[in-house]
């Protein structure tokens, strides 16, 4: 399948001179779940607003399904959940979902069937007939997701979804996203909640200060040349010498596991071990969590 989202040197400088996004080149393919990661202020919402043609770029261009985002027909194929959900308070949840399905050209009784299913899955069935003015923030956010999904869009864009969910409901949301993917839809989630993204995304991009720093599968990103050296017997003198290298040493009796951050540090550790007469038992590649990758790219002070 071709690219569902494509940007070419996409950039945005706001009127007061803030450059929120710089030369973004990104492709997301059909059926992918893509995590768009970055700390607050990185430019994620700006990129999403450009994709949806809410704002116009200062440079470059964005395409959805191969056509410029400014073609309004393209947006019909997109479901969107904004960062701040605003829904009309005088609707009931069921009324709103059925109305939305109607706008998308879905007739009866399918409209009602889909609304019921969404309300059920997202734990809103008990409040289906209540006016939204009485809904909590978390309920409104879940309803916004239901609204975005009811017409089974080809592309679902979620801007910093924070559904205030308990673990069980989180699983339901994840299942809904994976179900969308299962029918071939593309899902684009911007987030700073790494664990959420890690659990569902096929690929992630890390944005910081308007620049896309890394993009790839978690496996791609985690293979950063980091390793773990196992030593069966570490002489006490070597421990002090190792502290100079900056590598993290975990002792278990006299056995030691030394975590190295890259090939240079690994070489340094090896030479310290050799000088100290410690025999290396094994060396493993050390996969990184998404959090480690994220912090390395954006710095700990900007972390989630
Ligand atoms: P994120 O979604 O990653 O938190 P945003 O895209 O909201 O980041 O913001 C990126 C940068 O652009 C920030 O410095 C923000 O203050 C600035 N910005 C966002 N919207 C506007 C606007 N309408 N006018 C001026 N600056 C803006």
Describe what you observe in this structure:
By secondary structure, the chain is an alpha/beta fold. The protein folds into 2 domains: 219 residues, P-loop containing nucleotide triphosphate hydrolases (Rossmann fold), CATH 3.40.50.300; 62 residues, Alpha-Beta Plaits (2-Layer Sandwich), CATH 3.30.70.980. Helices cover 35% and strands 28% of the residues. A 6-stranded mixed beta sheet has the order 6-7-8-3-9-10, sandwiched between helices. A hairpin with a 2-residue loop joins strand 9 and strand 10. Helix 3 crosses helix 4. The longest helix is centred in the middle third of the chain and has 16 residues.
Overall number of domains? 2
- Assigned CATH architecture of the largest domain: 3-Layer(aba) Sandwich
Q: State the distance separating the first and last CA atoms.
A: 33 Å
Give the SSE string: EEEHEEHEHHHEHEHEEHEHEEHEH
Radius of gyration: 24 Å
CATH superfamily of the largest domain: P-loop containing nucleotide triphosphate hydrolases
Percentage of residues in strands? 25-35%
What name does CATH use for the topology of the largest domain? Rossmann fold
Q: What are the bound molecules?
A: adenosine-5'-diphosphate
Summarize the biggest pleated sheet.
6 strands, mixed
Uncertain regions spanning at least 5 consecutive residues: none
Instruction: Strand order, main sheet: write it out.
Output: 6-7-8-3-9-10
- Shape by Cα distribution: elongated
Give me the oligomer status.
Answer: single chain
The level-1 CATH class of the largest domain: Alpha Beta
- Enumerate how many helices there are, as a single number: 11
* Computed structural class: alpha/beta
Q: Please, what is the average pLDDT?
A: 89
How many β-strand stretches? 14
Residues in helix, %? 25-40%
